[in-house]
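Here is a typical sample entry:
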Amino acid sequence: MNKLNWLDRTIAAVSPSWAYKRLAWRNGMSVFDAGGRGRLNQGWNPSASPNEQQKRGERALIRARAQDLEHNSDIAGGILQAFERNVTGTGIMLQAKVPHNVPGNAAGEINQKIESLWKEYCKAENIDITGTQSLEEIAEMIIRRYYVDGGVFIVKVYVKDDAYPFKLQLRSVDELNSLVQPGEGKRIVEGIELDQYNRPVAYHFKKESDGYYLNPAETVRIPAKDVIFLFKKTDPRQVREVSQLVTALPRIKDANQFIEAVSIKERVLACMSVFIKKNTPSGSVGRGVRSGGGQEIDYSGVSLSPGMIGELNPGDEVQTVIPAGQASNTKEFITTLVRMIAAGLGLSYEAVSRDLSQVNYSSARQGLIEDRKLYKKLQKMLIDRVLRPVYLEFLESMYLTGKLELPGYALDRNTYTAHVWVPPGSTWIDPQKEANANKTALESNQDTLARICAERGEDWRDVVVQRAAEINLINELIGERSGKEEQPIEKEEPDDEDDKDESSDDAA
């Protein structure tokens, strides 16, 4: 029964039956089952305080647990690799789209120059402030930290005396100084300085000492315009990140512990060991009789190992406890856990477990379609919030350093910043069926070449131009071959005079 409030307790002191009727009536008048206060919901009393205040006390602990499973869990590793493999893949390619009517870009020279510089800039020694990661590797780390830590900081840095002065610096959310105190009218929430609209103004990071130790007593303030804070905001009042694995952490931990328990049991059962038991000596204590049988054996710290021979104290016996019913349902239990974990993250069971034994073409294709919707959503987030701002800053730096000659760039930036991103392509299970389906969709105007090419990570314009060039070359080669090898054969027509002579001879 639900606990009585102060009024019910006061009434219960005078009339218990009246208090009971009040409580029963209140429980019976509940509109929603989730809002009832009966026996089934008795232990379900979450706090109604603001969402950000609830997360503040648990954020660091959840992040630490997620990082622990990242290092020690096969399932967590499978989840992260699935996102890295399908979101970033072999890299998201840039295609500059400066119009051809721009002076100096009649044949796409400016586009080619921009793409060539971008390709060189994406190398580790040019884009990373530490010189250790290329843009592809940086994007892969961003996705990993986004899911494990809940977010990641990308800091824009400029250096001197470098061909590419604009660099990127990745910083973990652990480096944010949540102990910094507001002052001088500043509003600071867990290391993030905010204005009256909850818009970030600056970020306060812990100062590094000796390259590794972070000193929370000293703070480095970086303006928000120089920082990209990638995290998922699920509440209007939210200002900090929460690990994207938060709903899956308990299930991943349960799977790890269950697998460990089954593994220990199977290892114990596989051990073939022999224990020697000594009988307790009989007779009275006297000459030639030892009551203790020698020095007593200490069993503390002793464990089973294959082929071991052990000795017991006199009178001791070996008793084994063999748990039953664990190994028989291991596969079903682990499969259920993995399905729940994958569903909570928006993935299919096959994407996380890599187990394709229970799928056919239709089910596997449907799972891929749903997975790719999530991957495309993450790709769009990565492009809009990270790659696009970085590219615009790169273009600005290349123009200012003189590496790019862009006439009228200062007056019309939008013309030169036009571009598209081509995510890594993917193939289907049965290419022939997909090709036939695409052909039918194109012929019946149910799909477009642009969308079909985009699913493969290609630009439809490039495909059309390339196919046209190939067809023209094929026709040209066929025409040359026909002119050389297939000369028309001229038939010899009989001479008129010879025909006349033959006719005269016949008449004679």
In short: The longest helix spans residues 361-400.
